[in-house]
Amino acid sequence: MADDSGDTALQASRLERLAFPVGKSLTARILAVNLIPLLVLAGSLFFLDSYRRQLLDERFKLARIEAQITAEALAGATRERQEALLSQIGREQRMRMRLYDASGALIADSFELDAPSFTFDDPVAEPFLEDLARWTDTAVNIAVGAPSPPPYAEPADTAADNWPELARVRQQGLSQIELRRAPDGTPVINAAAPVGVNGASLLTTRNASDITQAVRNARSSLMTIILLALAVSIVLSLYLANTIIQPLRRLVISTQRVRLGRDREVEVPRMDERADEIGLLARAVSDMTATLRHRIDAVETFAADVAHEIKNPLASLRSATESLPRVKEPKLHAQLVEVAAHDVRRIDRLVTEISEASRIDAELSRATFEPVELGQLFANVVARKMERSENRGCVITIDMETSRDLVMGVPLRLERIAENLIDNAVSFSPEGGRITVTISRSDKRVAATVCDEGPGIPEGEREKVFRRFHSHRPEGEEYGNHSGLGLAIGRTIAEAHDGSLSVADPSGSLGGACLVLELPAA
Asked: Where, per UniProt, does this protein localize (predicted)?
């Protein structure tokens, strides 16, 4: 129990390593990719400063023109008419208008002639949202490096020279514009213009709070769009990440559990409902796991069969060698020696066959296929057996039903199939019997059918003959001359060539077994 709990803890600790760091997770990357355009869009908030400057430039031109037109209207007018114009224009245009004489003394003020047309907002008395808006204005101005105009303040002395723009008008005789900042941060535009030719001058003051409000409205609209797009982008990114990453994590955890040796407890999700690449990957991993399990089962079965097959001759060999010292009769002694030699040969044959069976897959996976004439290959095998008198007097004929018998494969391995099929037919045929090899072609497949006059293979036994170590001895044949691997090796080689090896119904007058090798035509 302690070992089991220790193994469980170890496996749990290994599974914990599957945690996905945010810096490497696809979720973070998907979010980053989708948020980058939004961040670029958010950066456009800073370009609202150019929009503000454009509005100010237009308002500067308007203020200059208003001041010049008003100055022309005031020139030559009587004092009463001047005061009436200042009061009317100031009230209608929401401006403060001040008229100075040639000495620079203030002679008329629209705010004194009539009620003030505007007042500066007190930032202390304004609600929190206005404070937040001003803080945002300040932060954006600092971020974009916008110059901060000087604060607007009424001079203690009302003389014209206390206003720099009026001082320049009096010196240069040209209209001037000056930008200042109200207590609430909104722009204050002063425009000064000469009045007539006697040295009088006009100063107009406008609180252009609508410019600040226009910029704030544009920024608010843009921020609303950005936040909405951000919310939609995050939701879609998380949805996309969930549909991609969560299935991948399930696959990773499943394959990790398989790697840790817990494959029997793991069902790798196939995700049959998904027709996309994730579904294809899931089904591929599931099929790969099933194939892996099949191979593990095959290896375990093969190892058990090997142990069983070698154990029998080893037991016989051990019994013979242990009995030899105690046997004094020469004839019985010679029989024991023959039994021991027979068992050694049997073990050698088994080891050779097992070694070849275990390395066929690896060799064929690296082999280079080349064109092979299947009929000629069988003819060469039959000729060699006849030269070595290994046919037990059987007559082997090759019937070529097609001249297009070219296949792609490894000649030595295909020869091994041919040798196994001929050996099997010779073993089960009566001495001097007939064996036929028929080469035919159907569609894109070339087939070699080997039939004999032996007892045949019952229909219920046709798949068993291809199992490893399945050995059914022909009547009268000495035990141990067949390893039971020949047909199993032959089928493995055929399948590695995208072909097949199977048992067919008896044909013709032979009535024995018929084994068919099918390979793709070249």
From this structure: Membrane
Q: How far apart, in whole angstroms, are the C-alpha atoms of residue 58 and residue 63?
A: 9
Is residue 17 over pLDDT 50? no
Looking up tokens 């007042």 gives: 119
CA distances from 519 to 23, 55, 105, 250 (A): 52, 84, 116, 40
3-state helix vs strand vs coil in the chain, percent to 5: 60, 15, 25
Closest CA to 487 of 459, 461, 460, 454: 461
Give 349-380 pLDDT, tens digit per residue. 667 766 666 666 666 667 788 999 999 999 99
Q: What is the DSSP letter of 473?
A: P
Q: Quick check: 456 and 425 in contact, CB under 8 A?
A: no
- The contacts of residue 63 (CB under 8 Å, 6+ apart) are 177, 189, 191, 204, 206
Rounded to an integer, the average pLDDT of 222-250 is 79
| CA–CA gap between residue 219 and residue 231 (Å, rounded) | 18
Pick the closest to residue 140 from 42, 265, 252 (CA basis): 42
CB contact set of 133 (below 8 Å; sequence gap of 6+): 216
The reply to whether the predicted model has a pTM over 0.90 is no
Residue 113: which of 135, 85, 132, 138 has the closest Cα? Answer: 85
d(CA 129, CA 320): 106
Classified as helix, coil or strand, 194 is strand
- Six token digits for residue 288: 């790969």
Q: What is the pLDDT of residue 332?
A: 81
* 60-113 pLDDT tens trace: 999 999 999 999 999 989 999 999 999 999 999 999 999 999 999 999 999 999
What ranges in 196-276 are assigned the alpha helix state H?
Answer: 209-257
List Cα–Cα distances, 166 to 129, 176, 456, in angstroms.
37, 8, 125
DSSP state of 429: S
Closest by Cα among 180, 187, 119 to 155 = 180
The string of DSSP codes covering 129-168 is HHHHHHHHHHHHHHHHTPPPPPBP---SS--GGGSHHHHH
Helix (H) or strand (E) holding 435: strand 434-442
170 and 132 Cβ atoms separated by less than 8 Å = no
The type of residue at 287 is: D
- Please say whether the beta carbons of 271 and 283 come within 8 A: yes
Q: Are 98 and 85 in contact (CB under 8 A)?
A: no
DSSP state of 474: P
Q: Are 522 and 371 spatial neighbours (Cβ–Cβ below 8 Å)?
A: yes
Which amino acid belongs to residue 58?
A: E
Lowest-pLDDT range, 73-77, 241-245, 415-419, 494-498? 241-245
